[in-house]
Amino acid sequence: MRYQVIGDSGVNASRVALGVMRMDGQRAPQAARIVRTVVDRGVTFFDTADCYAAGESSRRFALALHDAGVDREDVIIQTKFGIYRDPNSNAITRYDFSKAHLLAALDDELSNLNTDHVDFVLLHRPDTVVDVEELAETFDMLEKSGKVLHFGVSNVNPM
What we know:
It contains four helices and nine strands.
């Protein structure tokens, strides 16, 4: 397996990542076998998002790590947040980078992942009405709390 440092984070990760978006479709033994197989082949980087199967993919991934006997400290977990899911219909209705939403979404995701922190969190999609001052304050809070080590964006073009 080849590894490289991610950006200027200092984090050395496998160049291959396992995305766990569809992990909710796996029974527990299958999910654990998938995780164990990729870890045995040198994969250290895992990607998920709070909206994947309404959090079930992250819950199933956390269980798979446990069942596969993989220590949290031995893997790099990246998640994404900022997409709002209507609690009544469970439908994704908008992007929401407000402090209240991001703080609650991350706490839910940490619970789903059965961990106290993620290595990376990405804003999942662009929110064109984002209050950048509030977003900066939110990131500062998350970093100071130790819940997030590094920040980034997903599905955003360079412009």
